[in-house]
Write a structure and sequence with these properties.
Blueprint lengths: L1 E7 L2 H14 L4 E6 L6 H12 L15 E4 L5 E5 L7 H6 L1 H5 L4 E5 L11 E8 L5 E8 L1 H20 L8 E3 L1
Parallel strand pairs: 2-5, 2-6, 4-5
Antiparallel strand pairs: 1-7, 1-8, 3-4, 6-7
Helix pairs in contact: 1-2, 1-5
The chain binds adenosine-5'-triphosphate and magnesium ion.
Magnesium ion binds next to helix 2.
């Protein structure tokens, strides 16, 4: 399995990590964001959206009540927050599988609600270490995601080495 971890020291860094991931994305992808309430899933999603080219004046907020927000960018972006999903049948009504395996990028907060733990895609788990530090673990499931994880690790590695000074303290490890 292909994986690596990053520690982010601030909200801005998590958003920057997301932005770099968004820039790396060149083809359809399914990205599953796991983590407790307040872990930083939406912050990361906001960065991914910016990296895909969603304009700064368009707010990226959690689609908690609508379950899905759609943004047009370099690739179409479908941002799901399944926290309030009460019945898996709602996924069918939403057309989830078409978005998840379609021509755009699908981001999913609370993928536990899918009840499909082994779905292929880029799994990101965010863990709160303290008030401002978050550990982000990127795990690839499936060949397409492995390629993405390798490209992301390279891109983050060079971004970090360029910004080797404060306030950029994020570190990449295997
Ligand atoms: N390093 C960090 N990275 C991300 N967020 C951080 C960091 N440090 C502090 N925060 C704060 O943590 C919160 C993360 O909120 P966010 O909405 O992204 O969480 P979430 O995982 O999407 O939660 P939910 O499950 O409620 O949707 C924000 O208030 C943010 O300011
Ligand atoms: Mg959220």
């Amino acid at each position: 399995m292909c994986s690596f971890a990053v520690v982010s020291a601030t909200e801005a860094q998590t958003q920057e990590i997301g932005r770099i991931l968004g820039q790396v994305l060149q083809s359809p992808a399914l990205i599953l964001l796991q983590g407790d309430l307040g872990a930083g899933k939406t912050v990361l999603a906001r960065g991914i959206a910016r990296g895909l080219g969603v304009e700064m004046q368009i707010p990226i907020t959690s689609p908690t009540f609508t379950l899905m927000n759609h943004y047009s960018a370099r690739l179409e972006l479908y941002h799901f927050d399944l926290y309030r999903l009460s019945d898996p049948d709602e996924l069918i009504e939403l057309g989830f599988d078409d978005y998840a395996h379609g021509s755009g990028v699908a981001l999913v907060e609370w993928p536990e609600k899918l009840e499909r733990n082994h779905v292929n895609g880029l799994w990101v788990s965010l863990q709160r270490l303290d008030e401002n530090q978050r550990e982000l673990v990127f795990v690839a499931r499936g060949a397409e995601s492995e390629k993405l994880v390798i490209e992301l690790k390279d891109a983050l590695g060079s971004a970090f080495s360029r910004r080797d000074r404060d306030p950029w303290k994020a570190t990449v490890s295997q």
